[in-house]
Amino acid sequence: MKKKKPLIIITDDCWRYLALLKQVLSENLDAEILATTNAGEALAWALNCPPLLFITDIIHNGPDGITLLRLLKGNRMTAGVQVWVISGNIPDIFPQEALEALGADLAAPKLCSFGLLIEKARRLCRAGPVQGALSLRESWNNSLN
Predict the structure, then answer these.
(1) Which of 41, 67, 78, 122 could potentially form a cystine with 72 if both were Cys, beta carbons 3.0 to 4.6 Å apart?
(2) Helix and strand element counts for the chain (H, E)
(3) Distance of CA 28 to CAs 110, 120, 139, Å?
(4) Is residue 16 within 8 Å of 59, Cβ to Cβ?
(5) Which CATH architecture best describes the domain 7-144?
(6) Residue 144, pLDDT score
(7) How many Å apart are CA 77 and CA 15, to the nearest integer?
(8) In this structure, are residues 57 and 14 in contact, taking their beta carbons and an 8 Å threshold?
(9) Please, which residues have CB within 8 angstroms of residue 109's CB and are 6 or more apart in sequence?
(10) HEC string of 116-133?
C-alpha cells in the first residue's frame, strides 16, 4: 500500500510569491501542496482535510493571517496543525514573539532563506504531526541566532 503524502497548504495574496514558494517546496519535498491567494478557500481546505503544515501571509483579502491562525488553533480538528506565518511585515509590524504567543509554530520574514524553510519542512514531514512541533520551533530559533 502506498504511503499517503503529507499535505501542505499555502495561502498568500501575492500570487508571484505563492507560485515561487509552491515551486520551491514541490521541488524539494515529497508532499502534496495546495496553494491559493484566497485565504477563505485555504481555511476551507484545512477544515475539510487537516494538513501537516499550513503556511500563511498576514495580509489577505478576507480572513487575515492572524484570524486564520486563531481559527486553525481554536478548532478541534486543526488545533495540532503546524501554522507558519511568513510575512513581509515581520518583524516591523508583527514581531515573531507576538505571533508565536498567538499560536504560530513559526514566524519568519518573507526574505528569509528558502533553504531554511525547506529544511524545517523536511524535518516536519519526517517527524509527522505533534512529535516535531517543539523541536522544530527550537531548531528554527537556534538557526536564527
Answers:
(1) 78
(2) 6, 5
(3) 18, 12, 19
(4) no
(5) 3-Layer(aba) Sandwich (3.40)
(6) 45
(7) 28
(8) yes
(9) 86, 87, 88, 90, 91
(10) HHHHHHHHHHHHCCCCCH
Q: What distance in Å separates the CA atoms of residue 29 and residue 68, rounded to the nearest whole number?
A: 24
DSSP 3-state of 84:
strand
**Would you state the pLDDT for residue 62?**
79
- pLDDT single digits (tens) 73-108: 999 999 999 999 888 777 677 777 778 878 888 888
Cβ–Cβ under 8 Å, residues 50 and 71: no
Closest by Cα among 3, 20, 13 to 59: 13
In the DSSP assignment, the letter for residue 5 is P
Residue 139's pLDDT is 45
The whole-number pLDDT of residue 89 equals 74
The residues spanned by each domain of the chain are 7-144
Residues 38 and 54: their CA atoms lie apart, in Å, by 13
pTM above 0.85, yes or no: no
